[in-house]
Structure formats: structure tokens, C-alpha cells
Design brief:
two-stranded antiparallel ribbon, 2 strands, about 45% helix, NDUFAF4, NADH dehydrogenase [ubiquinone] 1 alpha subcomplex assembly factor 4
Length: about 170
């Protein structure tokens, strides 16, 4: 209801208001400051002389400056088109994969995929005696402190179904 009311006020007499705005004179630009740089130089030739005059003291100081630059040693390109990787990460195959091509196939050691994280959290929740932090660290190539933090701060959701009776509602 409020939208209709605002639309009525917004569209009221819109054509005449538009004509009134269009017929207004364009605003005049703000006046320029009287001492602009070009006017100052044109009126005073001594300023132009000062600009183009060489200062001998500054030139001698500039000649005393010596910069030494050296290029890094050139690297020899050899062995055809082979490029050696700077740092090669060890990767491991993931434990699960239900989506086929969309799943992550390889994960760097020390990291896990989301599916693996949910699985190990659920396994630890269901069987904490079997799936201890040490076993999870060995199984997924993780550090023990990271696994302990993961088990402490992340808890998977528990799905509970309630009966559909009036009493439960």
C-alpha cells in the first residue's frame, strides 16, 4: 500500500516539472582565481629567466653523484625446454570421492579436503576410541596439534527428527 502512495506522489505533475528543469539556464562555472600560473609567467619575464638559468653550484653537486648499477648474473639456459620446479609439494591421493570428475584427486600433505574433514569428524564423533587424534594424524598425513585443534573446535551437526504430532509442536 505504501508503494502505491509514494508512486502517486513521485509521478504527480512529472511532465511540467521536467519541462521546468529543462528550461532553466545552465549554471555558470565558478570564476578562475586571478593569479593562475600562466598569467604570472607572462607578466613577469624575470621569473622566466630564473626558471631557465643554470645554477652552477647545483650542477657541480650533481656531477659528484655517482651511481653504480650491476645487472644480476645471466642464467644459462640449458637442457632444452626442461624447467626444474623451485619447490615441489608432496601430494597424496584423497580417501573419498563420490562426485567423480568434480572431486579433488590430490591434496598436499598436511592438508585435507572438505569431504575428508567431515568424514574424520563424523568418525571421531561416532567411534572416539577407534578414531583417536593420533590415528587421524597418521591416516591423513596431518600434524597432531592441528588434528587436536580440529577435533576440539569443529563439531559436526547431529540431525534429529521429531515426530509430527501436535504434542511435539
Amino acid at each position: 500500500m505504501g508503494g502505491r502512495l509514494t508512486r502517486v506522489f513521485r509521478t504527480f505533475n512529472v511532465e511540467s516539472r521536467a519541462r521546468r528543469e529543462i528550461s532553466k539556464e545552465k549554471p555558470t562555472p565558478a570564476p578562475r582565481h586571478p593569479t593562475s600560473r600562466l598569467d604570472k609567467l607572462a607578466d613577469h619575464p624575470e621569473v622566466q629567466e630564473e626558471i631557465y638559468r643554470k645554477d652552477d653550484r647545483l650542477l657541480t653537486l650533481l656531477k659528484d653523484v655517482y651511481v653504480e648499477s650491476r645487472d644480476p648474473p645471466a642464467q644459462v639456459k640449458g637442457g632444452g625446454g626442461e624447467h626444474l620446479p623451485c619447490k615441489q609439494e608432496e601430494k597424496r591421493l584423497t580417501k573419498l570421492g563420490h562426485l567423480g570428475d568434480l572431486d579433488v584427486k590430490k591434496v598436499p600433505k598436511g592438508k585435507i579436503s572438505i569431504v575428508e574433514a567431515l568424514t574424520l569428524l563424523n568418525n571421531h564423533k561416532l567411534h572416539p576410541q577407534i578414531w583417536t587424534a593420533e590415528k587421524i594424524a597418521v591416516e591423513y598425513s596431518l600434524e597432531l596439534k592441528d588434528v587436536n585443534s580440529l577435533l576440539e573446535f569443529f563439531i559436526p551437526f547431529a540431525v534429529q527428527e521429531f515426530p509430527k504430532t501436535k504434542k511435539a509442536i
